[in-house]
Amino acid sequence: MGCTGRGVTTSQERSRKSLSGDTLYTDAKAMAVYDYLPERALLIIDSAVAVGNLSEAWADVYRAKIFSQTMKFDFRRYDSAQAICERLLSRDVQQADTAIYKNVLEILVNVSRLQEDTAGWLRRSQELVDVLHRQGARNKALRTEAEIGASLYYMGQQAQGLAMLDRVINTLNASPVFKFNELDALIIATKREIGVLDSEGRYAEMLPLLHHILERLDDYEQHPQDYHDGNFREPVDSTGRADYIHFYRSQAQGFLTAAYTALGDRDNMKETFYEIEHTVREATAREHIARYRALEHQLLRTQAEHRSHIMLIIAITAVAGLLLLSLFAVYTYSQKRRIQQKSHALVKLIEEQKRQPQKAVPQTDQAFQAIDTAIRTERLYADTNFQRKDICERFNIRREVLNQMLTDHANGLSFPAYINSIRLTEACRLLKDEPAKTVNAIADEVGLMPRNLRRLFVEQYGMTPTEYREGLK
Q1: pLDDT digits over 14-36, tens only?
Q2: I want to staple 2 with a disulfide (CB 3.0 to 4.6 A). Which of 51, 64, 100, 460 is the partner?
Q3: Interatomic CA distance for residues 161 and 148, integer angstroms
Q4: What is the DSSP string of 131-193?
């Protein structure tokens, strides 16, 4: 096509021709077939150079990509990809074109991993991090740094590796804008640190990281619109989003169960196991729903035009109804109360809060108020086996409805955290009103193991139950 005398005459014209699809000889055409027709892709790259659609430098980049990502375990092709990249680096591409430099480093990182060249992988990964930061691709750079940190840890440089992982996680948590790209990078980096901690049996240190992943996933599940940023890794629909959440939630819950088991915390282990069971059930249900919808869509396509019009009207009405319900339901309030004072100052603050008059309960809060009253007055929390499903069965509500109630009326607490807050309130009262009763007896009375009461007390109030009682004197 480039030999007819009617070919392009300037670089701008060549670019327009390539983008318009008037020729088959473009990098896009080559990369569309490289995975299953690598030889054909290489021929297209050669032709793209011949007709002026691609520079020789970029052609080398695509050749190296094809060699490194096809013909798995063909080390001759890996060597070819590496040789091409080294040739490009010798031409100082980092000075001429940072985009080419980044692509070359990404290929070398991949090839080093496939060749199990740890030293080469580490060196090229560190160079890639520098380039990504210079180009403003911060989250991609942080993902790579997390991999480097985990590798350093396994290579024997534990302190340096953990420090790098902590820095990556803290940087992502402190992001002024936290969208899906930041969420995904944070989960990946946190998983890297959990992995190294798990390999050393440091289970107690894993718990806050795992809970943080679950909290982030819960928030993403409830407010997906707040995370949308169009990142290529972001799920494109609700099904993909549910699968994404299920994948990482299942992994975190699995680690949690193992950690609680290793620490001898049977209560939390059982609760987490039930969460896993529910997660699996939800995933299975989604699969059945997906199959059903596929069959339903196939049936709908065979029906007459008037039936299609009717279904369209119904669908529009349903969507409008859902939008109205969503607009009506979009209200939340959250107030985090953290009491971190000790001794008399903390006790005084708690007592002042208890003396405050109760606010009138709005009409819309009455369902949750009925649940809360039953839990408190009937002392349902005193049963160590008390679970979310007990409330759902008694009040004939679905799990999702209860979760939404907790989001709206309990400062967004999870069900276990909400029950534990009631237990802590009752424990404070018993510590004050019944000084002769032991801490162990109080723990049993509020439905907690003594060590769990102590742990929750320290997390909530910054002191042990014994220290709290001493502060009352």
Answers
A1: 444 444 444 678 988 888 888 88
A2: 51
A3: 7
A4: HHHHTT-HHHHHHHHHHHHHHHHHTT-HHHHHHHHHHHHHHHHT-SS--HHHHHHHHHHHHHH
